[in-house]
Amino acid sequence: MDLKKEQIKRNIFLTLQIIFFILTIVGAILVFMKKVDNAGYAVIPMLWSLIFGGFMRESQKKIKEFSEK
Questions:
Q1: Given this model, what pLDDT does residue 1 score?
Q2: Cα–chain-centroid distance for residue 25?
Q3: Are 53 and 18 within 8 A, CB to CB?
Q4: pLDDT (tens digit, 9 = 90+) per residue, 2-19?
Q5: CA distances from 48 to 10, 19, 20, 35, 51 (A)
Q6: Using one digit for the tens of pLDDT, what is the confidence trace for 32-67?
Q7: Which residue, 24, 34, 50, 51, shows the most beta carbons closer than 10 Å to its own?
Q8: What is the DSSP secondary structure assignment for residue 1, as one 8-state letter?
Q9: Do residues 31 and 42 make contact, with C-beta atoms less than 8 angstroms apart?
Q10: From CA 36, how far away is CA 67, in angstroms rounded?
């Protein structure tokens, strides 16, 4: 049961990481094209992407531990 729960969490974290990474790229493009003056449009989504990436790695480690048992 816990293995299934961890797999679902990992997939959710991966999806959120990808979404925020795409927002980071869009924000960076807007900053480079001078459409916005604030680099926060790229930095803040990247911060969330890194956070969700860390959560995903932790879930992946737990899945690996469950699989070894």
A1: 59
A2: 13
A3: no
A4: 889 999 999 999 999 999
A5: 15, 10, 7, 22, 5
A6: 999 999 999 999 999 999 999 999 999 999 999 988
A7: 24
A8: -
A9: yes
A10: 47
Structure tokens at 31: 């900053």
Helix axes 40-68, 2-32, angle to 10 degrees: 160
CA 35 to chain centre: 25
CB burial readout 16-29, b (16+ within 10 A) else e: bbeebbebbeebbe
Write out the DSSP string of 15-57.
HHHHHHHHHHHHHHHHHHTTS-S-THHHHHHHHHHHHHHHHHH
